[in-house]
Amino acid sequence: MTPVAVDSSNTTERTGLSLSLEGVTTYLRFGRELKSVISRVDLRIEPGEIVGLVGESGSGKSMTARTIAGVLPRGAVTEGALLLGGENLLEMPRRRRRDVQAKEIGVIFQDPRAYIDPLWRVEVHMTEAMRVHLGLSRSEARARAIELLDSVGIDQPERRMRQFPDELSGGMLQRVMIAGALAVGPSVLLADEATTALDVTTQAEIVKLLGDLSSRRGLSVLFITHDLALADLVCSRVCVMYAGRIVEMREGRQIFENPMHPYTIDLLAARPTIQHRVERLPVIKGVPTSAMDAPSGCPFHPRCRFVLDECREAVPALMPVRGGLVRCFRANEELRAQSGSPKGTLPDGEDDALES
Amino acid sequence: MGKTMLLKVESLYKDFRLRSGLFGRSSRLQAVKDISFLVPASGSLAIVGETGSGKTTVARIVVGLERASSGTVEADGVVLSPQPGPDERRRRARMMQMVFQNPVMSLDPHQSIGAAIFEVVSFHGLRPPSECDARVRELLNAVGLDLRLAKSRPQSLSGGQCQRAAIARSLAAEPELLVLDEPVSALDVSTQAQILNLLADLKARLGISLLTISHDLALVRQLADDVIVMCKGEMVEAGSVDDVLSRPQHAYTRRLVDAVPEIMGRAAASSASVPESGARRDGDAR
């Protein structure tokens, strides 16, 4: 089945398509220069699966989403293979690619209020894509919009259709965004920090909704977040990104039980927990870097407390370790067990202050 | 109780008038209903709640950015006037300082961070003019910022560095109380820990009291001794952080605690990787 064969009558029950990225590198144009923002990203999401992409600012997690959705800034170049149901989007003619991306890939963002037109009633927001991309009539689109709003747990959908965004709460509006992203019946849903701006209790509801939708509709969901604990809760597989590269990939729970990359280990330890207070939070020195500013060698080496000379020279490959993938020369050394004696740690003030 | 109370807030109410449309009927929103609490000297209290709970309004009333509809705020034994004149405002600014959520937006983009700190030091006349520069350097040091950054503008710094600068600026007034409104939620996870350690340090070293406003229960556990939980303007639960977060009594608090994505068994895992105290310096200690 080709990804463009969207039949509007049965899109809701259709089983989805898998999405896979193979060695995807994206460059942004700065004047005459091209700079990579993500490097050789490999990722696979099966229908009905939620895969997590965790990273800090500049890690390239949003650029990965924008590459998949085809909404990169002007002049951007993408290499590698972006496969949707086995077809490489990057090899398609531009027109067709945009058509497939518009119909097959839904995106929801962090702050719904920044993405929804405040002067549009919910109805307009919900039906526009269906009318443009599926050619539905106004009443058909309306009927489906109501059905969709209902399916994402919005009560009195008919009434909501007439309301404006500022009349809805943040959680409600995020549900509208999700329903809107599902309007044309996509196979893939990209959730870019979709719950970050929400309260914890609302976050829990939205996360549950995403889980339901993914299993019920066979959606392939990419769940992008900075919160490792949340990713662990939601995802069957978690990828940790740093400076444009995936540095560790593990099955959901395993990322906590067996973190092997120094970045993952320290990131987990640096997070305060609700269960108890620690005397001093262990910190990662310095600040996160983006792929554009990354140093030579392993991009994490200036902040790493297990750094070796070779880390400064070459980028380690993503190696299978303990059932996951780790991009570190010392991945086999059980670094976590050595965490208690961080000999390599320098006072971070200097490094921190110098990077700017 | 033997402890002296630095801040005493008594039955605070705040109503906002809402109007729908230009000629619409106006209605009243009770944002804060009967909130009372105490912050002991060198103590640390947190107010938690969700969006719209009124927690930020309470903080803004405490520092004088908002007028209470009724109720009193007493600091160091003095009842603060709801309509402070210039003198009283200056006194209040000496007494307490607020640190905001978005550090980049809370600093003037046209001013270097050194100048921003200098301004506060000289405004309060805390040092003779000849010593102001030295004091700025001392403050930058205290928050772990490189002195060379004094000439930088906020937009050229990272979020963590900006938040350090904002904290340095608030320390310039030598306040007894820091009011922190979501102090780390705009920062990256790996820099959050640095700022939390810095705040704990300042509290221990300078004996500053903290009033933290946050929705993040893990942060509250790390930073506060006592906590009050607000829901729709009302206080639904109050007590020590340990009691409230480990044994929440009110249904709303339980819902909050349960919604936090935590990893079970994490306690054991993380304590294994926490170094001995003092064995590790991490820059904030400078």
Explain the layout of strands and helices.
The complex is a heterodimer of chains A (356) and B (286).
Chain A: E1 19-30, E2 33-45, E3 50-54, H1 61-69, E4 77-84, E5 87-88, H2 94-104, E6 105-108, H3 112-115, H4 122-133, H5 138-151, H6 157-161, H7 170-181, E7 188-192, H8 200-217, E8 220-225, H9 228-234, E9 237-242, E10 245-251, H10 254-257, H11 262-270, E11 319-321, E12 324-326, H12 348-354
Parallel strand pairs in A: 3-8, 3-9, 6-7, 7-8
Antiparallel strand pairs in A: 1-2, 1-4, 4-5, 9-10, 10-12, 11-12
Helix pairs in contact in A: 4-5, 4-7, 5-7
Chain B: E1 5-19, E2 26-40, E3 44-48, H1 55-63, E4 70-75, E5 78-79, H2 86-95, E6 96-99, H3 103-106, H4 113-123, H5 132-142, H6 159-171, E7 177-181, H7 189-206, E8 209-214, H8 217-223, E9 226-231, E10 234-240, H9 241-246, H10 251-259, H11 266-273
Parallel strand pairs in B: 3-8, 3-9, 6-7, 7-8
Antiparallel strand pairs in B: 1-2, 1-4, 4-5, 9-10
Helix pairs in contact in B: 4-5, 4-6, 6-7
Per DSSP, what share of the residues of chain B sits in E-state strands of 2 or more residues? 15-25%
Shape of chain A: globular
CATH superfamily of the domain at 241-354 in chain A: P-loop containing nucleotide triphosphate hydrolases
CATH architecture of chain B: 3-Layer(aba) Sandwich
For the sheet with most strands of chain A, the description reads: 8 strands, mixed
Tell me what the structure shows:
The complex is a heterodimer of chains A (356) and B (286). With 356 residues, chain A is of the alpha/beta class. Chain A has a domain of 114 residues: Rossmann fold (3-Layer(aba) Sandwich). Chain A is 31% helix and 21% strand. The longest helix of chain A is centred in the middle third of the chain and has 18 residues. Chain A starts with 18 loop residues before the first strand and ends with a helix. In chain A, 52% of the residues are buried. The N terminus and C terminus of chain A are likely disordered. The longest helix of chain B is centred in the last third of the chain and has 18 residues. In chain B, strand 1 and strand 2 form a beta hairpin. In chain B, strands 6-7-8-3-9-10 form a six-stranded mixed beta sheet, sandwiched between helices. Chain B has a single domain, classed as 3-Layer(aba) Sandwich (Rossmann fold). The C terminus of chain B is likely disordered. With 286 residues, chain B is of the alpha/beta class. The radius of gyration of chain B is 20 Å and the shape is globular. Chains A and B meet through helix 8, helix 9, helix 11 and helix 12 of A and helix 6, helix 7, helix 8, helix 9 and helix 10 of B.
